[in-house]
Amino acid sequence: MKKTAWIFFVIGILYASYLLLLLSLPYLEMRRGIDFLKTKQFIYHIKHWRYSFYIHVFTSILIITSGLFQFSKTILSSYPKIHRISGFIYLTVTLLISGPAALVMSFYANGGYPAQTSFVILSILWIGSTFLAYHYVRKKDYERHGKWMVRSYALTLSAVSLRLYSYLFDVFHLRMDPTDLYILLSWLSWTLNLVAAEIFIRRGLVKRLLANR
């Protein structure tokens, strides 16, 4: 990734993380009638869903920011310890905490079976790609590790793209039935990200990142 493009990418992700932080802060009150939870009144009493929701909300920013450090050539070559520590945080939190929580939540997603199916697939792919990234780094196969990290992080960013696409629909006044819109967004949020990840990989950008390793 060219330096200018990388800088804009980092700024964009950091700004998105800041917005997610602002959206997450109200949930510290642990009250059932806050923002998104207003649509979940009929399942808020289900403990495993409620715990999964708060876990996922409060770990999302940590995962997004720690994952971002994995794609800096400067950090990888000059500060490998930062790369390893942030990678450990990303893999551990995704595989053991936030990924399982996301999978639990996906079975209760708004939009019925179409949206639930989308989020179940997303969660399984997210956990699976992250596990393969872990598997290959353990085998010191850094190129495959890098490719699976790109896929994993693309799925991580579905939390950002979901909100971005929703915002764009509002900006361009694209009117749809709210349920149909949410179903559409649930699929667009991660499928387009995976397409972008595959383009990134096939253009050899992972190899370039590892070139001086």
TrEMBL record:
Q: Which UniProt keywords apply?
A: Membrane, Transmembrane, Transmembrane helix
Q: Where are the transmembrane segments?
A: 7-28, 53-76, 88-109, 115-136, 148-169, 181-201
Superkingdom to which the source organism belongs? Bacteria
| Transmembrane is among the record's keywords | yes
Q: Which InterPro entries match?
A: DUF2306_membrane (IPR018750)
What's a Pfam family this protein contains? Answer: DUF2306
* UniProt name for this protein: DUF2306 domain-containing protein
Q: Which organism is it from?
A: Fluviicola chungangensis
